[in-house]
Design a protein that fits this description.
Elements: E1 5-12, H1 16-28, E2 33-36, H2 45-48, H3 80-93, E3 100-101, E4 106-112, E5 117-122, E6 125-134, E7 156-159, E8 173-177, H4 181-193, E9 196-200, E10 207-208, H5 217-225, H6 227-242, H7 245-248, H8 254-269, H9 273-278, E11 291-292, H10 296-300, E12 305-308, E13 312-316, E14 319-322, E15 327-328, E16 332-335, E17 350-351, H11 358-361, E18 380-382, H12 395-415, E19 420-423, H13 425-439, H14 443-446, H15 469-476, E20 484-487
Parallel strand pairs: 1-2, 1-6, 2-3, 4-17, 6-18, 7-16, 8-9, 8-16, 9-12, 10-11
Antiparallel strand pairs: 4-5, 5-6, 13-14, 14-15, 19-20
Helix pairs in contact: 1-12, 5-6, 12-15
Amino acid sequence: MSDPIRVDVLIIGAGFAGLGMGIRLARRGRESFMIIEQAGDVGGTWRDNRYPGVASDVPAHLYSFSFRPNPQWQRVFAEGAEIHQYLRGCVEQEGLEPHLLLNCALHQARWNDAEARWLVSTTRGEFSAANLVVATGRLTEPKLPPIRGLGEFGGRHWHSAQWNPKVSLVGKRVGLVGSGASAVQILPRLAQEAGEVVVFQRSAPYVLPRGDRRYTRDELSRFATDPDAITVLRDELFAEAERGIGARRWHHPDTDLLRQRALHHLATQVPDPRLRRELTPDYEIGCKRILFSDDYYAALQFGHVRLEPTALTEVRDGAVVAAGGRDYAVEVLIFATGFDTTRPAVSRNIFGRNGLPLAERWSDGMIAHATTTVDRFPNMYILDGPNAALGHNSAIYVIEAQIDYVLGALDHLAATAHRVLEVTAEAVQSTARHIDELARETVWTQGGCSSWYRDARTGRLTLLWPDSATAFRQSNATFDVAAYRSSTG
């Protein structure tokens, strides 16, 4: 076998986080690095999710790198294909191709004490890396609910992240399972094709008006000729989003006003009292992800669309059966049921000191200091992982703060004789206690719902940062060596 490829930094994953890390490293020109990606293209969730209507629910000029503004966004909220193309453009224009290895799946990454390096085996060879950056994201492993008899379903079925474009839905009887972010985007397009649609709703979401539109020719011209115009718009969008944190932290009247806004949208869109009652959530706003749509409620009122206000539970005698007891004859089932987010599969393939699996370290839930580092996993940094999501603002802002943290750690190593940085267990636990305290009186823990933000086994808020985006950067963007043990290896 050939010798491992030696790099200063190995990045796992080529979505927003991995590519952002790569861009910043490439611009520095100090460290050798590679990005490995198991798929045949970059883009992460925007490569995988190709369902009809897929789009960001954060405005495009905020849902993009601050260091790579895009004057060509066509809409206030970019569609998935446009975001994917933006990320492809990042690779080409930032010269990342020589640093990128596609169709390269991780077998295992194992810390080697003797060499003070990560030894990584993949489907395309082996690497020896001084530093490991895990950028595999959270929305990568489709989740299917436990449906009794699903194997006996006589029609076609698939998850929204594994869309089957070869199956025509024109005139078909379709069951759409779920009423979260993907379902809200899918239904209006699906209803234009299918002959009949039944939406299986386990719990009603809060929906706010989206207000999407195309940018005018004058606006696009101004973005193209005046970079400051994009900066000003981005700052305005960020400030507007930040104002939403008060409602999520259960501050009054912020929460009350946001709830009233959502319920007013429901009341004006859905005149039928029975349907409106079935679409009214029974938990506090913000406890689950708030959705944005201008046409979901309208689509539910088409004559050939029916809301089933209980979950799909069973396939029996050729029909699909809801928890409420009603059965439906459908030809296609589409599962818009989200992802396994709190127990990432990649954690089973990463081994720290003394062969400790990351999955075992996280057996009580994901945890990291500054949302980025884990004790007993030296020189390893996790982007877009524990407590690195926001319920009110842009994930890209969070990713950029984490990248700054990693660059600070690399700068420290370069400025000293040290080769190894390992965060202390005390620092990790201190971060966990701080997050638990921040989360204690928020809608995410007290709002009366179950959500993908929380670990199902422990109830801890392990996905979400329970404070403002500004506070995230203040807490987690600047590397602090005091939380680490340093050594020469």
